[in-house]
Write a structure and sequence with these properties.
With 71 residues, the chain is α+β, with helices and mostly antiparallel strands. It has two helices and two strands; from the N terminus they run αββα. It has helices at residues 19-25, 57-70, and strands at 33-38, 41-46.
Length: 71
């Protein structure tokens, strides 16, 4: 059985991931999450992003978005 924690959505659509969940899944500051939905569920998964240090910051973010779409 999984632990359930109630979180509130802010007026800007933000939610805070509880520390126990972040710790359990190894989610750290600056990590990216891929979000999808399935019927009445929201699915978060840790995204694997490879940084291209030769391109500007915006370039690798755009590249990463495209890779996530194809995973």
């Amino acid at each position: 059985m999984s632990d359930t924690t109630l979180v509130k959505v802010s007026s800007k659509g933000l939610v805070t991931l509880p520390k126990k969940i972040r710790s359990k899944l190894g989610i750290n500051d600056g990590d990216y999450l891929a979000i999808s939905s399935n019927k009445d569920q929201i699915i978060f998964r840790k995204a694997k992003i490879e940084i291209d240090y030769e391109n500007p910051d915006d370039a690798w973010k755009e590249y990463s978005k495209k890779r996530l779409a194809h995973d």
